[in-house]
Amino acid sequence: MGVERLELRDRLEDMLAFSAVARALSFADAARELRVSASTLSRRVARLEAALGAALLRRTTRRVSLTEAGTLYLERCTDVLQRLEEADALVSGFGGAPRGRLRVAVPNLFGQRHIAPLVPDFMRRYPRITLELSFQDRYVNLVEEKFDVAIRIGALPDSSLVARRLATIRRFLVAAPRYPRGREALAQPGDLAAHPCLQFSHFQDGETWTLVRGVERTTVRIHPVLRTDNAEALRLAALGGCGVSALATFLVDDDLRTGRLIRILEDWALPEVGLFAVHPPSRLVSPKARVFVDFLAERLAGEPWERSGAVRPRRARKQGVAGGVSLRQRGAQ
């Protein structure tokens, strides 16, 4: 046959070396990731290219790039290595408690307020899992960045990711108690056009808000005096009397309960959005990822941050512990 046969162990080492270099586009960075020397990686990639009879990488003194053959081979390598990792993780679950490193991406503010406080209980329950939490608001690429699970808020784009809804996020119009003084009363949604508004750019686009009341739905034009993707900045601006903001109950529940903020147009709210746990598609979900998602579903059931009578919490919904469904199967929710 045209392809030289290598020992399976050598082939897997070479594929891992090539995959690391191809993702980093740097021998030095890949060497740090794998904790080997750059010269070792270079030898392994060269051995793989010799066995395949094709150049996988273009090397210059300044940069590394993929050849056409390398791009195709990387896709297959990633699939093989991922399935091997999944198989190891699945079988390891039969040897006792789930174990291993678990990488989770969580929204920055929600993660700090409502996931970080749960970590000690999770670690006590699963002491053999090493938890690595990344707090950031951008949508990470789970496969390329090697995250096991991501927690996301809002509508999910249609994709092959598997998602599980953990809770509902509700958002209300709020302002400081002193804010409305000296201004025309807000009696109906259209009145917002005459008031300064504080806009959360992650959920809301342009200069409009969509509001709902029962089955009614209306879109109103607003005048944003502050637009940011940081919800805490909006909360502080609202507390400072700068205007009306649409904020999630997980952020302002305590403020509403203590009276630091009040609801504006109490019969109206922004459309609800979901809190989801998502993970890459796989027939073999690792035990460590499964128990983490089950743990969050258990602890976040019924929107526990809605303690205040001011937010009128609904009766807690029962949450199952079954696996998620593909977004392609059900669409974004």
From TrEMBL:
Key word Ribonucleoprotein present: no
SUPFAM superfamilies named in the record: Periplasmic binding protein-like II (SSF53850), Winged helix' DNA-binding domain (SSF46785)
InterPro entries recorded: LysR-type_TF_proteobact-type, LysR_HTH_N, LysR_subst-bd, WH-like_DNA-bd_sf, WH_DNA-bd_sf
Segments for region (Disordered): 307-333
Domain HTH lysR-type: 10-67
Recorded superkingdom: Bacteria
Keywords for this protein: DNA-binding, Transcription, Transcription regulation
Recorded family membership: Belongs to the LysR transcriptional regulatory family.
Protein name: Transcriptional regulator, LysR family
